[in-house]
Amino acid sequence: MELTLPPKVTERAFARLAQINASAEAPQALRVAVSGGGCSGFQYDIKLDEPAEDDLVLEGAGQKVLIDPVSLPFLSNATIDWSEALIGARFVIENPNATASCGCGTSFSI
C-alpha cells in the first residue's frame, strides 16, 4: 500500500483539540494510529500523545495531529474530523481506503 496523499484534518477537529488542550495542564497532540484488530480487521487508535521523531505532524489552529509511519499508508487521503451526534461526540475518520467498516466506525478493512 502506497501513500498517495497525506491525511487532512478539518478545522472542526483542530478547534475541538484546542478546546481539550485549553483545560489541560500540559497540552498534547492528537495521535491517530491504525492497528490490527477490531471486528473488521483494522482499528483506529485515537489518543492524546507526545510527538515521536518519525511522525507526520499535521498542524492547524496552533494544534498538532500525529500519524506514525506504519499507520500513514492506511490513512492516505483520509479526513480526520470531529462529530457531535445523538449517540455521542468523538473524533471520526473518513477513510477512502476502507472497503468495509463496522457500525461504530472504529474498525475497518482494506
TrEMBL record:
It comes from the Bacteria. Gene3D superfamilies: HesB-like domain (2.60.300.12). PROSITE patterns: HESB. Pfam families: Fe-S_biosyn (PF01521). Residues 8-105 form the Core domain. NCBIfam families: iron-sulfur cluster assembly accessory protein. This is Iron-sulfur cluster assembly accessory protein. It comes from Phaeovulum vinaykumarii. The lineage of its organism: Bacteria, Pseudomonadati, Pseudomonadota, Alphaproteobacteria, Rhodobacterales.
